[in-house]
Amino acid sequence: MSASRTERLLNLLIALLNTTYGLRRSELRDKVYRDSTSTDVAFGRMFERDKGELRHFGFEVETVTDKGWGSDDPATTRYRIGKESNRLPDVSLTPAECTVLILAAQLWEHAALGSAAVNAVRKLQASGGLVDAELPAGVQPRIRPAGQAFEDLVTAMHAQHPVSFRYLAGSTGKEEERLVEPWGLGSRFGQWYLVAQDRTRGDKRFFRLSRLTSAVTVLEKESFTPPADFNVRTELASLAELPVRTAVLDVQAGRLHGLRTRALSAPVAEPGAGLPKAGRDRLSVPYRDAETLAEELASYGPRVRVVSPPELVTSVRRRLAAAERFASAPVPPVAFPAVSATAVFPAVFPGGGAPRRGRKRTSEDQLARMLQLVPFLVHNQGLHISEVAANFGITRKELEADLRILICSGLPEGYPDDLLDIQWDDDHVTITQDLDLKRPVRFTVEEACALLTGLETLNGLPELAEGGALESVTLKLMAAAGEEGLKAAALSAPEVGPGNSAALETAREAIRTGAQLRLRYFSPLRDTVSERDIDPLRLYSLDNTWYLEAYCHSAQGLRNFRLDRIEALEPNGLPVSESATPGDSFPVKLFTPNDDDAVVVVELTRRGTGLADEYYAERTAELPDGGLLAEIRFGSTDWLPMFVAQHGGTARIVEPEELAATSRQWLSAALAQYED
């Protein structure tokens, strides 16, 4: 869709919105399209395509016919769009409701739904529905979606397209090609599941996203209709939790403290396994899911060897072998664009946010942005142009291109009073003529899902569920979203309640009172337990894994501590130091960059491209096969071989070469344990 088509669609929309009786096709052709060269048939096809585009944005084009004439006569058929067509209803929110709404929108920081949530909040802001709200101290829950597969499946699910992928069947342990109709996505037992109709087997099936062994292919030329009243949370409730099993492991003496704390007091004897080699301890570790444990054990490389059960051995070896193949493959040329395409959290999220990789912008994105831009400017008169650009996650140059198209758009006659009137000569943007575009359009299905699923997820935090604000804002948004809101039942997020609730409460109270804490903490990187005095600053979560951002007096800097790795936490009787301040980012970053960080170039397959967002890649470059080169800062490079092994063939180190060589040696040593 070219820029000229964007302008034409905008003019067509304005013309159809601002006519009471409707405009004939001949009038539109002459006054909007200014078309005098194409044939009637060619123009008719173009007009039908444009009507379809407007329907895509939610504007239903009404057909009005003169009495006594047929609707198939172009000469007597008129077209219009009702002024209330696809307009977001007025939503009035209290400060308490705004608080939980913004927290719900922030849940999806790294996913495509994060952009949808930002758009939805911006629409509410443009309609005047948002008021100033103070976010609760120390509560910033977030959701970590299951990589690129999650993004592709959400897109296909909402567009109702079937998908195909390769899948590791839990019953047989074999990889199989699956062709399915994605009905819903949800989290259960700490795993993301797809509920879908398997076309090959002719029945409903549950697919765990961690068992997908290929990228998801969306069949855009096909479609399906999901069951009426489908609710993915109800479907997933029927899944039974896997039984507890025991893994027998040979672990390097004195290493892997975290694994040892989970081991049974007495190792389980494995018939025919022999004795562990010198310098190894035999441990028996309980687990429920082989794939989840295999991901962890693969990261430990040569420090652990799986003795049994066979399926766990196979899973670990498969991950290590895939990682070694990828690490040894030819390296693509390393080149990054001068300016990476990034998006920025709008000002509605205080403090801005980290750049995030996104797909290439299209003219369709531009038109959707313009339909948000006009009502935003109406309700935010006089903002500096750089602030407007930051709100929409675009550059000033892109914003000025939007504004130039807007000021040339208007009613068919094209007189000055019939055009959108926007000025920014002094770098402060004002709009005085909006041509009935001053109200934002309704939520898309992605926007409705992002907000409503986020609000449902916050029910897991009692301090937010109390008071009724969470329930009331959910009802208001359901009413505003209409039919699109009903489709939110196809998405269910994980629980965000913490596992270590005692540590959470201790930390929250210390943050509230300004008390210093002493903690005993297990560091998996150093494989040691240490005691530290800290100034607690903020709490945040990824799914149900909670982190405490604090100033560490031992490290003399900001650190993020996982609550489930804290073995003891208590006040030490001292107040926090005056110099302790939280990081600049909002929401909190899991990784805080420093000047002495190592800059590493990582290659990611299409399945692993989501890691670029998770690790805050500073630059990215797309590869012809759908993969990605990502330049990432790491505070310590010691754990990079573990990072490569853990992700089982979806990530590898490209530069510096010495780090790439170290990771290859790590993988070779890990696989050598299983050669006999």
How would you summarize the topology of this molecule?
Layout: H1 3-17, E1 23-24, H2 25-33, H3 40-56, E2 62-65, E3 77-80, H4 95-106, H5 112-126, E4 140-142, H6 147-159, E5 163-168, E6 175-188, E7 191-198, E8 203-208, E9 217-218, H7 232-236, E10 245-252, H8 257-262, E11 280-287, H9 290-299, E12 304-308, H10 310-328, E13 342-343, E14 356-357, H11 363-379, E15 383-384, H12 385-391, H13 396-407, E16 421-423, E17 428-433, H14 445-457, H15 462-465, H16 469-481, H17 483-486, E18 491-492, H18 501-513, E19 515-523, E20 528-542, E21 545-552, E22 557-562, E23 566-575, E24 598-604, H19 611-614, E25 619-622, E26 628-634, H20 640-646, E27 651-655, H21 657-672
Parallel strand pairs: 4-20, 6-18
Antiparallel strand pairs: 1-3, 2-3, 5-6, 5-9, 6-7, 7-8, 10-11, 10-12, 13-14, 15-17, 16-17, 19-20, 19-23, 20-21, 21-22, 24-26, 24-27, 25-26
Outline the structure in words.
With 676 residues, the chain is α+β, with helices and mostly antiparallel strands. Strands 4, 19, 20, 21, 22 and 23 form a six-stranded mixed beta sheet that branches. Strands 5, 6, 7, 8, 9 and 18 form a six-stranded mixed beta sheet that branches. Helix 4 packs antiparallel against helix 5. The longest helix is centred in the middle third of the chain and has 19 residues, at 310-328. It starts with a helix and ends with a helix.
